[in-house]
Structure to design on (436 residues):
């Protein structure tokens, strides 16, 4: 069967390359990102799918130095709480670099908008689809950043209530990511948590079933 | 500042092209997808970022004809409930084609795994980051599908408890998407909900702030 909509081989390889080489980065160089490139990355995010076309994503560019420090302290605090919650693995966790907030060239917070309860299409039984839409937007931005040679990291080590307060966010909205973005010396050859021995990856074949849970497909 | 990690111009354009041309499709041709291409799409999904490297995504390939019909009926049912909940916009909603479950070449259910409570890294205050990871995986698959010339649609019009029962899913797991995938005659030139007059898109400049909520950046 012919498929006229298929991209050229080199285009397909470029898409697969970005998907394979994208990494959750924690190590950055401090130089800023070209503003034109930044706009392209945000435009890529903005082209994400959204449930009922509600476009629930909001992006706050953190340009103020003091505010950046406050965000970093908030994450330091949650890092300690997380270490405590991890029990036996606390030391191993504390030895890892888990974010690059102080040094990355550009810092963003991605958030869910307020007034989301007005959107019912695709959300009556699955209200959390708004978060899924924001995640798709962030993934678009991540892949575009990788193609631009820029590293990106998604930090979720924070108290969302306190972060919302720091950014004057209205009731009903919610921060979902602190996004570190910027130039990097090198991209990790594999996920950092794998390189650090935090977790092993499971092969795809264990996660794809046929017709019913835990049946084998691949 | 030089950037050695930047892709070639043609590669960058290919990534941006997939992001721009990806659509949430509801119209499909019934012919199946090449199994090798299917594996590439699932491998793309599997390369998504995941919080704490927990890889919470599971994919169930619906190959059984009767099971596909049951899924379609489940969605038909929720479509009526949603129409009712939409009040004044009920008729407009019912006139739209909102899924292609019966006709698409390949059908999947994407789900959150069970036993997620074991994963604390990045989730102590933000447990919903597991859904964000699954959404990133689906977005990877979507972009790869577009590059392969294949349409994909994310359907969230279902009762997750009933769908979990149909697929024998264990306690703690949760379906998050019925994924329609397959060949299409044409990709929509813009989001279908925009073409159908359901919703207007807001420009990016209204959704990007600087330092504090509702401040202007762009």
């Amino acid at each position: 069967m012919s498929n006229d909509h298929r991209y050229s081989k080199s285009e397909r390889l470029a898409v697969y390359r970005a998907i394979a080489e994208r990494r959750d980065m924690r190590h950055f160089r401090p130089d800023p990102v070209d503003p034109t490139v930044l706009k392209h990355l945000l435009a890529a995010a903005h082209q994400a799918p959204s449930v009922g076309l509600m476009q629930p994503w909001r992006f706050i560019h953190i340009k103020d130095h003091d505010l950046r420090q406050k965000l970093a302290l908030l994450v330091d605090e949650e890092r300690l709480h997380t270490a405590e919650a991890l029990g036996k693995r606390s030391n191993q966790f504390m030895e890892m670099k888990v974010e690059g907030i102080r040094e990355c060239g550009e810092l963003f917070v991605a958030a869910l908008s307020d007034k989301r309860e007005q959107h019912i299409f695709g959300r009556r039984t699955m209200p959390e689809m708004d978060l899924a839409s924001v995640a798709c937007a962030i993934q678009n931005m991540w892949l575009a950043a990788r193609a631009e040679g820029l590293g990106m990291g998604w930090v979720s080590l924070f108290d969302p209530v306190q972060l919302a307060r720091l950014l004057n966010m209205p009731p009903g909205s919610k921060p979902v990511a602190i996004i570190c973005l910027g130039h990097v010396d090198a991209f990790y050859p594999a996920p950092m948590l794998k390189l650090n021995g935090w977790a092993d990856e499971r092969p795809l074949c264990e996660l794809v079933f046929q017709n019913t849970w835990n049946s084998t497909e691949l």
In short: Residues 24-206 of chain B form a domain with the NADH Oxidase fold (CATH 3.40.109.10). The longest strand of chain B covers residues 174-182. Chain B touches chain A through 111 residues (CB under 8 Å).
